[in-house]
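Researcher: Re-running this chain for the archive, since the previous output was lost when a drive failed. Same request as before.
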Amino acid sequence: MFVFRDKIYIEEIDSTNSYLKSLNAVDGTLLYTFNQTKGRGRENREWLNFKDKDLALSVLFVPQYPVENFLWHIAVFSLSLIDMLKEEGVENGWIKWPNDVYVGDGKIAGVLAESVWNGGVMEKLIVGIGININSDRDDLSAIDKKTTSVYIETNKFLSLNSFAERYVEKLERYFGVFFSDGGKKEIRKRWIDNNKLLGKRVEWIVCDKKYIGTIVDIDDDGYPALDDGVETRRVISGDIFLI
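Model: Regenerated structure tokens:
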């Protein structure tokens, strides 16, 4: 059984990830807020949270084990949300590689993993998620991409405290699986079952280059293989879009 060692609520904060990165905290510290003012996504992209409407939550890990990549930690955050969405009657949630959760064609959450290294040793791994819960269409119109929220999908305002408590329980359950014998294989299987990549035509953009092809495999580390008709390329960074 996995249980977070410390759970901290802060009324307002610039970034839950940044705060945990600077905090001298124990392994398994969880921090959350409903008012994050300077959220970030991958490649320093802005992530908007609307005050007292959405959830920002991060966890600090002090690895006692080898960490080749962060994808399976990210997968735990995504799978926990997929379960939450299903409990609210939202059945068409899916995971977009590597770190987003969508409902239909609208993004509902993003996960960001960051690390702190010292002399080639990872001292900290921080994984955070921003989830659109009660934000409405007027709120999300400020974002230049197709986005959605639990409220938009269900027409129900949810208790943020209750949602956060339930989400933390999901995280603990999934991390319990993750840290068990054979747990990474189980997380990988569930992650693959909840993404739309295998067998799909995609556009992959990396380092200002664009490749179009079909995802033919996802390896044990979670990296897709894209067949563009010329060769099969291992996708380890960049952005993938379904076409």
